[in-house]
Design a protein that fits this description.
The chain is α/β, with parallel strands linked by helices. It has helices at residues 8-34, 50-61, 72-80, 94-101, 134-137, 152-163, 167-170, 180-188, 238-247, 250-258, and strands at 37-43, 64-70, 87-89, 111-116, 118-122, 143-146, 174-177, 194-198, 203-204, 207-208, 212-215, 224-230.
Length: 263
C-alpha cells in the first residue's frame, strides 16, 4: 500500500538530502586516497622538459610527481642499491634493459619516450658556424662534453668527432662533465669556449635561446634512444602507470618536441 501520511513528502526530502550528504562525504574522503605521489628518476638532460610535463600531468591526473635528477649511470646504481624510485626516465636504452634483466624493472614496460638531439654550442654569437667547421679550424682552447664512459650524449659526441676524423687531435682539449648537465655548465660558465650539449638545454620556441650552434645531423651518431621503464617499486602503483601512459599521449609528445627532442 502507498503511504497516505502527510509526512511522506517530508520523508522523501530528508532521504534525498541524506543521500546527497553521504555522496559528498564519500567524495571528500576518497579524493586524497585516489591521488598519489610518483617517484620519478630522470636523466639530467631531460631536466628542462620536466616542469612542463609535471604541470600538465598533475593538472590532468591529480597525482603528484617527485622528481630526482641525475646521470643515468648514477641513477641506475642507486636503483640497484634499493633506491625506491617507481619510474625511470633514462638517457639511453641500455640501463632500463639491464634493470629489466635484473628483475628491477617490469617486463614489457620499457619504451622510447624521446630521441635525444645533440648540438655543438657556444654562448657567444657567431662562435659556432652552422656546419660545425669550427671543430676542424681548432680556434678554441677547450671543448666540453659529457663523459662518454657513462653518458650517452658523450658517446654520441665521440662518434661525431671520430666520423670527422678529429677525435685524436681534439682529445687533449676535452673538458669532461659527469653528465650532459655538467658539460653544459662548463660552456655556459666560460670554462670551455664551446661544447657538445643536449639541444633541449639551449632550445626553446623553435630556436636557440642564446649564442650560436651547429645542430648535429642524426646520421653522424647512433640514435640516442631515451627509454622509460616502470620499476619494481611501482608495480602496484596506479599513479606510476598513469604517468607512463601520459608520456605516450599527444599532449606529452607536443611538450617533448617543443624542447628539441625527436620522437
Amino acid at each position: 500500500m502507498s503511504d497516505p501520511s502527510p509526512l511522506r513528502p517530508l520523508r522523501l526530502l530528508m532521504y534525498t538530502l541524506i543521500c546527497a550528504l553521504v555522496s559528498a562525504l564519500l567524495l571528500l574522503w576518497t579524493g586524497p586516497v585516489l591521488a598519489a605521489e610518483v617517484r620519478v628518476a630522470v636523466a639530467s638532460n631531460f631536466a628542462p622538459v620536466m616542469p612542463a610535463l609535471a604541470e600538465r600531468f598533475e593538472r590532468d591526473s591529480g597525482h603528484r610527481l617527485q622528481v630526482s635528477l641525475g646521470a643515468s649511470g648514477k641513477i641506475y646504481a642507486q636503483i640497484r642499491h634499493g633506491a625506491p624510485f617507481e619510474v625511470f626516465l633514462s638517457a639511453d636504452a641500455d640501463k632500463p634493459a639491464q634493470l629489466e634483466r635484473d628483475g628491477l624493472a617490469m617486463p614489457g614496460s620499457r619504451f622510447t619516450y624521446a630521441l635525444g638531439r645533440l648540438v655543438l654550442w657556444s654562448p657567444r654569437p657567431g662562435a659556432v658556424d652552422a656546419e660545425g667547421a669550427v671543430l676542424a679550424r681548432g680556434d678554441f682552447r677547450k671543448l666540453a662534453l659529457a663523459n662518454p664512459r657513462v653518458a650517452p650524449y658523450g658517446q654520441a659526441a665521440v662518434e661525431i668527432l671520430r666520423a670527422r676524423g678529429l677525435l685524436e687531435a681534439l682529445q687533449p682539449r676535452f673538458v669532461m662533465g659527469e653528465n650532459i648537465a655538467q658539460a653544459y655548465k662548463f660552456v655556459a660558465s666560460g670554462n670551455a669556449e664551446l661544447g657538445f650539449v643536449a639541444l633541449s638545454q639551449v632550445w626553446q620556441g623553435g630556436r636557440l635561446t642564446s649564442g650560436s650552434g651547429w645542430i648535429v645531423p642524426a646520421a653522424l651518431h647512433a640514435p640516442i634512444r631515451q627509454e622509460a621503464a616502470l620499476l619494481e617499486a611501482g608495480r602496484h602503483q596506479p599513479a606510476a602507470r598513469a604517468f607512463l601512459a601520459f608520456l605516450r599521449s599527444p599532449a606529452a609528445h607536443a611538450i617533448i618536441q617543443a624542447h628539441g627532442y625527436g620522437l
